[in-house]
TrEMBL record, chains A, B:
It comes from the Bacteria. Residues 187-254 form the 3-hydroxyacyl-CoA dehydrogenase C-terminal domain. InterPro entries: 3-OHacyl-CoA_DH_CS, 3-OHacyl-CoA_DH_NAD-bd, 3HC_DH_C, 6-PGluconate_DH-like_C_sf, 6PGD_dom2, NAD(P)-bd_dom_sf. Residues 6-182 form the 3-hydroxyacyl-CoA dehydrogenase NAD binding domain. Keywords: Oxidoreductase. It comes from Labrys wisconsinensis. PROSITE patterns: 3HCDH. Belongs to the 3-hydroxyacyl-CoA dehydrogenase family. This is 3-hydroxyacyl-CoA dehydrogenase. It holds the Pfam family 3HCDH_N.
Length: 313, 313
């Protein structure tokens, strides 16, 4: 496989535009396509706005030099035909991803690689009947990919074995943090970890043990601080004098009891979701969701800038 | 109850010393006692070292002015007799906490309040036979309390109802972030949330889906970034255009499937713990655990300093 130099981005929404920034800021040439003419018309302006925000936080230098590497094209084939790598970020529904993947598979070079931004649907669910299906896998980012560097790489059973090490290396060169999920599993690793914590949060709320605001504070002012620079295994490895086995001996039984208490998981019922929604809408009216998301992105940018200056050891 | 001005700290290990810093840096007078003469002899030097580290990150001003507010005393009674508030941070075992709580209950003023640093044992398990038991509750910090501000307040069934609002307010005035757990539950909120994520992490590792290092990266470079300034409910509230109910409609079924797949939780087996331990010890030899913990604390201090400069909206 060639070096990842030319990229086709299929799907120009928030995720696809974020990916375009990831590739272009690393010097790669990007051709972006979206089936919606409206999204195509607005994509580059949105990308320039994101880049200007990043520049204000010292995360990128010359905005125009980056934006110039991205061209919006009028057909999917034009976006992917010459690409070394294609990032597919269309709507997350099996039939939509399958149809787009068929088009991509028919138009790519034999040695191109196609990563899907799918956040939970495995590639085998939408690439079984796709031309060159052995070139496809999942490359799931966190939103927005230009600020949160993690990418989960999840091969389908038929993905060419040479692709995983190639893409891991390529993602590292782009400045992302790739992890490998060895086999397909619903939700992959990231959303399974998030889901486990969310399920416990909903269950504690449902039992009346704490308000949604206090559960949020418990993470934002407690658990989340260490987790923003160390994972859960390293955290417990440093949380007992003898390391992770010492910790497991002391606290494993408590955590097993927590798991035992959740043997009969309940779905997030409409009533439950309604109560949390009311609490959230009192804290943040629906009209302010967009402004709060912009605040979140500014906090993320400031955090990313902060992390850059920190030593890894 | 009086304003929280004079504090008795019982237990002078890492947690107790961290609490002494929390109180003293907010201008309170602290009397610290530990049953070990060795710990008593070294406590103030350790506190001065922590304060000097914090000063280097701009987190405190005059180290000596803070240290001068802390005196190490030679008896438990001397530490607690005049205290408005007592923070108990002795070894986490029911019999140890029960014996120390009896001594504290016999020596405090009638209107004093006693918070235990217990990280999972509810106060009713060790205060049932304690004098003035209605003055006791759990005030569980995250380690180290002078860097991570969260405190879980968990009343026993017999805790005086006036204490919770008083202590919540007092903790806020100290600069901590208190949350209320309405009823006793094993692990409280923080360690139940941590345990849910850890249980999923161990299960994914056991199934061979990812390495411990890649699971750690998934949190440290993915999930943990937003969680260092927003809780899980706010995170999903901002992750769908229509807010938390929109998110729950779209992703609730996936997360319920994750929970359904864990209906038969396995304990963290010796074999499993051994394998993660080997992976961790290859990444970080046991001899380096202490240096890595010092790095963690420096990263925490830098993160806390960074958070101080960030807008809340």
């Amino acid at each position: 496989m060639r070096r990842l130099e030319t990229v086709g981005v299929v799907g120009g929404g928030l995720v696809g535009s974020g990916w375009a920034i990831v590739f272009a800021r690393a010097g790669r040439t990007v051709r972006l396509f979206d089936a919606s003419a409206e999204i195509r018309a607005g994509a580059l302006a949105g990308i320039r706005r994101s880049l200007a925000d990043m520049q204000a936080f010292g995360l990128v230098g010359d905005v125009e030099a980056i934006a110039r590497r991205i061209s919006v094209v009028d057909s999917l084939a034009e976006a992917v035909a010459e690409a070394d790598y294609v990032q597919e970020s269309v709507f997350e529904r099996v039939d939509v991803k399958a149809a787009v993947s068929r088009e991509i598979g028919a138009a790519i070079r034999d040695d191109a690689v196609v990563g899907s931004s799918s956040s939970g649907i495995p590639a085998s669910a939408f690439t079984a009947d796709v031309p060159r299906r052995e070139r496809f896998l999942v490359a799931h980012p966190v939103n927005p990919p230009h600020l949160v560097p993690l990418v989960e790489l999840v091969p389908a059973p038929w993905t060419d074995g040479a692709i995983l090490p190639w893409l891991r290396q390529a993602m590292e060169e782009l400045g992302q943090v790739p992890v490998v999920v060895n086999r397909e599993i619903e939700g992959f690793v990231l959303n399974r970890l998030q889901g486990a914590l969310l399920n416990e949060a909903w269950a504690l709320y449902e039992a009346g043990l704490a308000s949604a605001a206090d559960i949020d504070r418990t993470v934002a002012h407690g658990l989340g601080l260490r987790w923003s620079f160390m994972g859960p295994f390293e955290t417990i490895d440093l949380n007992a004098p003898g390391g992770v086995d010492d910790y497991a001996r002391r606290l494993g039984p408590l955590y097993h009891a927590v798991a035992q208490a959740r043997r009969d998981p309940r779905p997030w019922s409409d009533d439950l979701v309604g109560r949390v929604t009311r609490e959230r809408r009192e804290a943040l009216p629906a009209a302010d969701l967009k402004a709060r998301s912009a605040w979140r992105d500014r906090r993320l940018m400031a955090l990313v800038a902060h992390r850059r200056g920190q030593p890894d050891r």
